[in-house]
Amino acid sequence: MEKCSVHSLDLTARNVARIAELFPQVITESRDAEGKVTQAVDFDLLRQELSDRIVEGPQERYHLDWPGKRAAAFAANTPIAKTLRPMREESVDFDTSRNLFIEGDNLEALKLLQESYLGKVKLIYIDPPYNTGNDFVYEDDFTETSADYLQRSGQKSKTGDRLLANTEANGRFHSDWLSMMYPRLKLARNLLANDGVLLVSISDAEVANLRAMLDEVYGPQNFIASVVWQGGRKNDSRYVSVGHDYMLIYARDEVTLRDAGVRWREKKAGVDKALAAGRQAWEQSGYDPMRATTLFRSWLSDQEDITPAVSRFKNIDNDGRIYNADKDLGWPGGGGPMYDVPHPLTGKPVKVPSTGWRFTEDSLREQIRSGLVEFGVDERKIPRGKTFLDEIDDQVAESVFTQIRTTAAQRLASLVGSRVFDYPKDEFVLARWFDLVTCSDPDALVLDFFAGSGSSAHAVLHLNTLDGGRRRFIAVQLDEPTPLGSPAASAGYLSIPDIARTRIRVAAESIRAGSPMISIDGGFRSLQIDTTNMADVAASADETGQSQLEGMIESIKPGRTIEDLLFQVLLDWGLDLTEPISSGTVDGRDVLSVADDALIACFADEVTDEVVQAIASRHPLRAVFKDAGFTSDAARINAEQIFREMSPETEVRTI
Questions:
Q1: Alpha carbon distance 516, 42 (integer Å)
Q2: Are strands 400-402 and 223-230 parallel, antiparallel or unpaired?
Q3: Closest alpha carbon to 447 in 143, 169, 184
Q4: Using CA atoms, how far apart are residues 573 and 571, in angstroms rounded to an integer?
């Protein structure tokens, strides 16, 4: 029994718990007055979380540290002057698809998605660069102030400058990689739902550091498993063939999963095949259990792809059901009831388990009458309980599995061309793990911000095909150009996003061709990270001449479309970027409606009272206009008055 508390509530402990929920990365270990290890707040890290510049002042504590860590934390919190621009020509089913493909730096993408997808992502899967000494990491500038970063991020940088060779000769080999991952993992955590899950593929080089980093960012209490994926052999290795990768799995909040009764289960491979063979053996035997068992065991011996979890079921009973007599009928730990159970053939009492029977005498006799107990040839063998294959066709996923990598590469080659992309992840393996996490949520949102060739998006499509789900994906990939002269460039792919988009499109077409009766969302809205749509007018009065003032009246950059402006508004308002968009005209002005008038936008150069009244009469939840579209302050005030009278519930903004 729990003891009653003899003291008041520990407010300090409660406050620490509240801070841990908001900022798990600032929780560390310390020793109290009695020398016991207890939870404590790392105030240096907490100061960094609440500051807009790098905070100095390290102290001795248990934590993962590296040169540049504070700057990396600073980078996660620094705002950017960027937006997402639609790319209709690169999209598939732009107007109807609920999937997103974002081209650009994933650190910037994660920042832009914070409002629209905060706490809405069920599963994040990433396969980041493995840091083998030959790879590249994203080059982020961690030395700027917030103002400097805002100014720089308003300028479009060259794609080639975003990658940094991270060779082992570099003195910051591990530090650069950790600094690249840290802000991205912090921002990703914000997007996960409370019952969300993170899966990260990684190799030996950084698995230890990554585990420590994830413990800090997500909390060690939310660690689920470290899964080993054996993908092949390396016979040219000097010491050991290291052909495996890892998948580190963390929950956003494991307690939420536990409270919801979540238990991950997957169907045993080969169960349906074995059940069909058992039915055939039962019919061929003339419904003779001994003959049926012989036929079924003969079939099992010829199978090479049946797993031990299925092949251990070798018997067929009097009802034609496949079973295995593997249940111990003894009382766990001893002390069970002791009574005689007669053998059905000899009539003599069978041997009693040394720990006593697991069941009462009446309960065990009922199981015997129901055919749930198997006896030995005579009374000298202790009976065993039966387990039926058709009742336990699922199992807990094991932490070690084998799937050869070359098969995934071959399938990708059939979709996008040979040698176009090296070492793609297996979409079938990903679909298996995605299913474990999302099986109870057929509308789950899946995010991959190291999209590569698009394996995770393909896995979502494949999984939806299998179970009829409506899972959506957001894929983010750096606009990295393919090397000149490479097979990818020779095949016409100018960038990695080109490969991924083609793979998703062709995969969807292949699924539809093979399963014409299945309806899936195989499209995506393609968006590109770009500078803000707002013109740069950050100049002092002394720096601005009279001739420049007229050019500053227009606040929108030249060449930006009304759809460009709309998507920036969607980001600012935190709306889903895949909501349906319809267009029309009011008094000769283009008007865009999002999600059946959840938002109406009119970015006309001149907004008349007629336009405002027509929009207000539709009672949208939100309305937005271009500020320069009002000819005067009086016109703007008059528009506000129209909404107050006709649609007071509408939130009105201008850009």
A1: 57
A2: parallel
A3: 184
A4: 5
Residues contacting residue 289 through CB under 8 Å, at least 6 positions apart: 316, 317, 318, 320
**3-state helix/strand/coil string of 379-403:** CCCCCEEEEECCCCCEECCCCEEEC
| pLDDT, tens only, 38-97 | 778 888 778 878 776 666 665 566 778 888 888 888 888 888 889 999 999 999 999 999
**What distance in Å separates the CA atoms of residue 141 and residue 68, rounded to the nearest whole number?**
11
pTM: 0.80
Among 348, 407, 344, which Cα is nearest to 371's?
344
For residue 525, what is the DSSP state? Answer: E
Contacts of 435 (CB under 8 A, 6+ apart): 266, 463, 466, 467
pLDDT band at 8; cut points 50, 70, 90: very low
Q: Beta strand pairing status for 622-625 and 599-602?
A: parallel
Q: What is the pLDDT of residues 295-319, one digit of tens each?
A: 999 999 998 878 888 889 999 999 9
3 state SS of 270: coil
Q: How far apart are CA 501 and CA 633, in angstroms?
A: 46
Q: In what order do the strands lie in the sheet with 581-586?
A: 581-586, 589-594, 599-602, 622-625, 651-654
pLDDT tens by residue, 466-499:
999 999 999 999 999 998 999 999 999 999 999 9
Closest CA to 638 of 279, 283, 629: 629
Query: Which helix (H) or strand (E) segment is 628 a member of?
Result: none
Mean pLDDT check: name the lowest of 1-5, 360-364, 540-544: 1-5
Cα–Cα distance, 560 to 552 (Å, whole number)? 16
Rounded (10°) CA dihedral 190, 226, 261, 216: -40
Residue 538 pLDDT greater than 60, yes or no = no
User: Which parts of 331-477 are beta strand (E)?
Assistant: 373-374, 384-388, 394-395, 400-402, 445-448, 472-477
The single-letter DSSP state of residue 268 is P
Residue 611 CA neighbour count, 13 Å, CB half: 26
> Please, are residues 321 and 328 in contact by the beta-carbon 8 Å criterion?
no
Beta-bridge mates of residue 543: none
d(C-alpha 275, C-alpha 296), whole Å: 10
For β-strands 100-103 and 525-531, DSSP reports them as parallel
Q: Rounded distance, CA 621 to CA 639, Å?
A: 16
CA within 13 Å, CB half, 50: 10
Cβ contacts of 298-303, under 8 Å, gap ≥ 24:
300/274, 303/270, 303/273
What the block records as the tokens of 3 is 């003891």
Q: Is 106 within 8 Å of 184 (Cβ atoms)?
A: yes
Beta-carbon contacts of 161 under 8 Å, excluding residues fewer than 6 positions away, are 139
Residue 294, SS3 per DSSP: helix
- For residue 554, what is the enclosing H or E element? none
Which residue shows structure tokens 């049926």?
A: 292
Position 384 scores a pLDDT of 95
Cα distances (angstroms) measured from residue 161 to each of 167, 481, 490: 17, 11, 23
Residues 6+ apart with CB under 8 A from 231: 243, 244, 245, 402, 403, 404, 405
Please report which residue ranges of 164-203 form alpha helices under DSSP H: 173-191
**Tens of pLDDT along 161-171?**
456 556 655 65
What's the start-to-end Cα distance of the chain, in Å? 62
Mean pLDDT (the chain, rounded): 87
